[in-house]
Amino acid sequence: MSVLTALRAPTSALLITRLAAEHGVSEATCLRGTGVAPAELRRPGALVTGAQEIAIITNVLRAVPDTTGFGLAAGLRYHATAHGIWGYALIASRSVRDAIDVGLRFLDLSYSFSRITAVESAGELALVIEPEVTDPVLARFVAERDIGIIATLYSDITAAGARLHAIRLPYSGQDFANAHPTTELISDTTQYGADDYAAVFDVRTVDAPLPQSDPYTADLTTQQCRELAIARRARIGTAGQVREVVLTPPRGLLTESEVATALHISTRTLRRQLAAEGHSYRSLVDEVRCTLACELLSATTLPTATIADRLGYSESASFTRAFARWTGQSPLRWRKAQHETSI
């Protein structure tokens, strides 16, 4: 499932807006252009898409003057209870190793925007983090946040304020000077200039029994994680599957028949199922294009012609007309307005 189309609780987005407020950024600025209403952040049972949370994070990163270590600071707010049943499944696990296994098995129930892999070697067990977003500032934030979240969860489930054995960051300590107090809070060692982002455990500690482990609760919460994952995938429906397939190609967009083939159904069935959900293929393509266009215009300095090409338009004029239809503004005017409101 794509991290952009996947559904998630709005708790993470709410935590980000609260952190932003401490830096003088209003909730309205955080939510601008995301399609998320303030009430949705606090409504029980509400869900947002990964793309909407990414849009919120992008707004915050544009508005905060210095984002050095901002991701780590954000991650410290994500205690186990903020993750719902996924967090409780970690708490009830027999050991840290078991918690890692459950956490990675149901990673799509977390707030991560990364691919996370457990790698054991030389007396260490490292959770290697590969951001699945392309913008470098955004990628740095989501990777740092994952490290902060892992450190916070480790402290929570051990119930002893334990720190990570080490963290790895792919930039110099000089560039990260302002965040040193945070790194010292969450790990014994910070390895700068690494080849990857990683949260590292001493392998001698990962098999020790956890103080709050309970076999019955572990089995129950794991089953609930499995059921929740299935329910969320089903909730995105055919429209969600189409969004996911359309977002997959690195360049351009698939045709309706190509999407139907990817979903192993006929074009006629695709149209019927989308109509039953109140959508059409064209409306979904416009939605995806609009979302990607806004992201590229706000998070990059790419020329309009390049963005048009990436979205599958043969001419930039066609993209400009389409963007004006979606937003009521030209791409250049929309980008300028975003810049002005973020200053």
Q: How does this structure look, described?
A:
With about 350 residues, the chain is an alpha+beta fold. The chain folds into three domains: about 1-65, no CATH class; about 70-230, no CATH class; about 235-340, Homeodomain-like (Arc Repressor Mutant, subunit A, Orthogonal Bundle), CATH 1.10.10. Helix content is about 55%, strand content about 10%. The protein is built from 16 helices and seven strands. The strands form two sheets. Strands 3-4-7-5-6 form a five-stranded mixed sheet. It has a two-stranded antiparallel ribbon with strand order 1-2. A hairpin with a 2-residue loop joins strand 3 (about 115-120) and strand 4 (about 125-130). The longest helix is centred in the middle third of the chain and has 23 residues, at about 135-160.
Question: Which tags fit this structure?
Answer:
single chain; 343 residues; alpha+beta; Arc Repressor Mutant, subunit A; 3 domains; five-stranded mixed sheet; two-stranded antiparallel ribbon; 16 helices
The average pLDDT value, as a whole number, equals 87
Strand order, largest beta sheet = 3-4-7-5-6
Order of helices and strands: EHHEHHHHEEHEHEEHHHHHHHH
| Protein structure class | alpha+beta
Structural domains: how many: 3
Number of strands: 7
Helical content, roughly? 40-55%
The percentage of residues in β strands lies in 5-15%
- How many helix segments? 16
The span between the termini is 35 Å
Rounded to an integer in angstroms, the radius of gyration calculated over CA atoms is 21 Å
Tell me which oligomeric state these chains represent.
single chain
Largest sheet: 5 strands, mixed
What is the 3D form? globular
Low-confidence residue ranges: none
